[in-house]
Amino acid sequence: MYYLYLLYSDKIKEFYIGTSVDLRKRFYSHNIGDSIATKEGIPWRLVYYEAYPTKDDALKREYKLKQYGQALRRLKERITLVDPR
C-alpha cells in the first residue's frame, strides 16, 4: 500500500504534500527534521491521507495536487483544520 498525505504546519501556515510506503515512519521523519523541505514547519500535523495499491497511482495523485491548483483547493475545502487543544 502507498500513501499520499497532506501535512499542515501551524507555525508557517502551509501545507505539504507527499507520498510514502510507510506513512507513520515518514510523518515521524518530517517532525524530527530529517527533511530539508519541511524542517522549517516543525511541528507538522497529518491532516489527510489517501491509500493507493501502487506507487504509480499515489505519484499520479500527488502530481495532480501539486500541478493543478483547483484539485488542491477542492481538497483543502473538504478538510477542516481544527486545533486539537
Query: If helices are DSSP runs of H or I spanning 4 or more residues, what is the number of helices?
Result: 3
Task: Report the β-strand fraction as a percent range.
Answer: 25-35%
What's the arrangement of strands in the largest beta sheet?
2-1-3
Question: How large, in whole angstroms, is the Cα Rg?
Answer: 13 Å
How far is the first residue's CA from the last residue's CA?
Answer: 32 Å
The top level CATH class name: Alpha Beta
Could you say which overall geometry the principal axes of the C-alpha atoms support? globular
Throw out a few tags for this protein.
3 helices, globular, 85 residues, alpha+beta, 3-stranded antiparallel beta sheet, GIY-YIG endonuclease, 3 strands
